[in-house]
Design goal:
Number of helices: 5
Shape: elongated
CATH architecture of the largest domain: 2-Layer Sandwich
Order of helices and strands: HEEEHHHHEEEEEE
């Protein structure tokens, strides 16, 4: 089942990676706050949970991200930071064999290659990478905050409506229509234009 969510040309490599790792996998409905997570359930029991997504490239990156957590745990236990230098090293080692155009489209590959030099806790923190990944979300009609102009009105999943006030350095200042409160939005947030 896990292999149903990744690019075809990555399946053999992933199968090989999973052979000696003792991990229980769960594919969940989409969660808003994270793409996946790694948990220690007890003595020699670990679990990786990944959001179900139609974007097979995002799924593969998340899977490798979480496998890097597993490898870091096996190597260091709980003695290192979750996204510290040890995890970054393991993530790079896992990702390198997948960095080829047989697996990732060229645009994603270019941004992913930059990203793994110093990966962050979430791909969502890398604007270029997340924007290239979002282009491969089939049937995604969402616009991004960075596509809007001052005065445009949009809503988010919760139904709240906002108006773009202005672009700040990296984020967009927006006014919630109902309350008059101001919020900052990252440029890559998906929204519906009203």
């Amino acid at each position: 089942m896990l292999l149903d969510f990744i690019p075809l040309n990555s399946k053999i490599q992933i199968k090989n990676l999973l052979v000696n790792r003792k991990i229980m996998f769960i594919v969940k409905s989409k969660r808003k706050t994270k793409h996946g997570d790694f948990k220690i359930l007890g003595r020699e029991k670990t679990q990786i949970t990944i959001n179900k997504t139609i974007n097979k490239y995002q799924f593969l990156i998340t899977l490798l991200h979480e496998l890097a957590h597993y490898d870091t745990y096996v190597e260091y236990g709980n003695k290192v930071k979750p996204h510290g230098v040890e995890w970054k090293k393991n993530f790079r080692l896992l990702m390198l064999p997948f960095l080829n155009s047989n697996i990732f489209p060229e645009e994603i590959l270019k941004n992913l290659s930059k990203y793994i030099k110093n990966p962050k806790a979430s791909t969502d923190n890398d604007f270029d990478l997340i924007m290239s990944l979002k282009k491969f979300n089939p049937n995604d009609r969402l616009k991004f905050v960075c596509d809007l102009k001052e005065g445009d009105i949009f809503n988010i999943d919760s139904g709240k409506k906002f108006k773009i006030i202005r672009k700040k350095v990296k984020r967009y200042e927006c006014l919630e229509i109902k309350t008059g409160r101001k919020y900052l939005f990252s440029p890559q947030v998906g929204v519906n234009i009203v």
